[in-house]
Structures are given as C-alpha cells and as structure tokens.
Amino acid sequence: MTLPTDRRTREVGRTVSRVVVDHLGQGFGQPLVVAVSGGADSSALLCLLADTQSRHGWRIRAAHVDHAIQSSLVRARFREAARKLATAVEVPLDISEVDARAEAERSQGGLEAAARRVRYDALARVAQERGASAVAVAHTLDDQAETVLMHILRGSGLDGLSGMAPLRDMADGLRLVRPMLDVTRAETEAVCRAYAWTPVEDPSNLDQDHTRNRVRMSLLPLMREFNPNVAERLAGLAGSVAADRDLLEMVGGLALSQLCDEHGTIARRSFLSLPGQLQVRVIRAFCRERGVTLSAERTGAALQVIQHGHGVVELPEGGRLSVAGGTIALDPGCPPAET
C-alpha cells in the first residue's frame, strides 16, 4: 500500500496513535482489534493504526462484522473490501456474520439498535478469542456531533449530551476505544486518498428513514448556515458536559459512601436532602456497586418510588430496589446461568 507523505495525514496518524496510548497505554505487542466495515472512516482508522504500530506498540488485527441486513451484493462488496484492505496493510482479519433482524425481533426494538448490539457482541467475541484486551472503532467528530444532536432531539440529560466516550468498558477486562473523535469525516476521506485506497460507499447512509441520516443530511447542513463549525462546537460541548458529568459521578460516589449504613442501605430522609442531580448519581452508583446498571427509565422510576416513600422497582436479572420504613435497599438478584 502507498505510504502517504503529506503532512496532514501524518499528523492525523500521530493524533490517532497518541489517543490509543493515552487511553490504553503502550501495547508492547499485545493484540488490538480494529473494527473495519470497508467504509471511509474504518478504513482510515485501520490504515493509520497499522502504519503507526511502532508508535503505539499494539499488534493490529482487523475484524469485519456482517449484519445480514443489506443485499447479498452489498454485503459481498463490504467483505471483499475488508479482505483487500487487511491484506494491503498486512494485518490478519476475522469476519463474523450476525443476524441483526433476528435480534430486533427478539428484543422487539429497532433494527439500528439491534445491529449495534450484535456488532459489539461479535467484536467482543473476536477480541476474547484472539486474546485482545481492547477494540478500536472509527467514530469521528462528525459522528459525535450527530449523536449529541440526536440526544438533544430526544430530550436527553447530561449522559446523552456527553456523547460517545473515548473509552468505555465492553465486557470483563475488555475495553472499547474511539481514537478518531477529534478527526472529521472529511479528514478520514483524505486519509483514504493519501493511502490510495477507495472505500466502499454504504447505500444505507442515504436512507432517510434512519434518524442519524436525516440529522446528517438535513439538520446539520441547515445549522452550518448559522455556524460553519457547528460540528466542532457540538463535539466540544460533548467534551465539556462529559467533564461535568464525571465530576458529578465522583461526588455521587463520595456521597454514597457517607449515606450507606453498615447494612448496605440508605436512609430515605438523608437521600432526599441531596440536590436532584446528585440524587440521580447516588442512586445509580448505589445500584452499580451491586452490579446493576440503571437505565434512564428505571432511574426515574426509582426516584419516584423514593419520593413516594414506599414501593418496589423491578431491575434487570431479577433485582429489586425497594423503599420501606424510611430505608432504601437493593436486592441485585442473580446473574443468568452460564450456558
């Protein structure tokens, strides 16, 4: 593959490599799975991380997930692009096929959300099978701006306005890193040109039945008439809000340590003396410490029950948050049996 010599591409490569090291540390030859669809963003990420292995120290391997959504012709085109690119940058490639439609039917949810779940599940399996401790995905600054706008449209709070985190946990001992949240989509396309690589165009990106596509194709262009740098401003907003959210999380953890008694319960009166946003962080931390992650809906239900003074909120895996006798208690239930 042609190695780029232009300064901007090399700068983007150094930026991406530095983000990986900042969040994951030096790899020292450990495997890092890079998700590659064959599109411009993931192709650019794979090219840059494969090209800068001497900088970040991670041994790059690619993973392609076929969601079985699009036509067989389109799916074959993406698979072949992933194979050719992995060969060109001299990294091994794993290909997984999943059934996003079946997951959508099982969960009775949207296809986009189902595809995201099965994709991350597949990437986690590949990483675990290959002994990798992390997976890298190619979300860009533009993706971050779109995500923030979508959360605003849905009426999100701090968590939604924080957008996508540059680093998060996927499974036990496995992390997800997003090294390109400061890189624009235009820059990923320029990186592909610099490497003389022609990415595959995804026809589904033109389907305005998808909210994200409408945001990208209709809403953001209109907002750029008011501020040409609106994507950068929205991504910056996500970073600022994330910092504030993290501070609240820390304060919530400290408050929880003071509120919890020796029985692992919380006095309702003391809890209600906290400011509203701190109540949210404390009750989430209370559940998280016991292995239960509260959705926004269940967080609201828990706060309502606590305000009312008695009642029960059913939690995932058979858990129960109960309020009675002036006390807030949690029975986390049992994890599902391994099969």
Description:
By secondary structure, this protein is α/β, with parallel strands linked by helices. It has two domains: 7-224, HUPs (Rossmann fold), CATH 3.40.50; 260-331, Uridine Diphospho-n-acetylenolpyruvylglucosamine Reductase, domain 3. It has 14 helices and ten strands. The chain has helices spanning 7-24, 40-51, 53-56, 72-88, 100-107, 111-129, 141-153, 158-161, 185-194, 211-224, 230-259, 268-272, 276-288, 296-308, and strands at 31-35, 59-66, 93-97, 134-136, 167-171, 174-177, 266-267, 311-314, 320-324, 327-331. The strands form two sheets. Strands 3-2-1-4-6-5 form a six-stranded mixed β-sheet, sandwiched between helices. Strands 7-10-9-8 form a four-stranded antiparallel β-sheet. Strand 9 and strand 10 form a beta hairpin. Helix 2 (40-51) crosses helix 9 (185-194), helix 5 crosses helix 6 (111-129) and helix 7 crosses helix 10 (211-224). It is elongated and about 70 Å long. It starts with 6 loop residues before the first helix and ends in an 8-residue tail after the last strand. The mean pLDDT is 92.
Number of domains: 2
By DSSP (H or I, 4+ residues per run), the number of helices equals: 14
Please list the strands of the largest sheet in the order they lie side by side.
3-2-1-4-6-5
- pLDDT average, as an integer? 92
Following the backbone from N to C, one meets helices and strands in this order, namely HEHHEHEHHEHHEEHHHEHHHEEE
Radius of gyration: 22 Å
Q: Oligomerization state of this entry?
A: single chain
Shape: elongated
Task: Measure the end-to-end span.
Answer: 44 Å
Which regions have little confidence, pLDDT < 50, spanning 5+ residues?
Answer: none
Number-wise, the strands total: 10
Quote the beta fraction. Answer: 5-15%
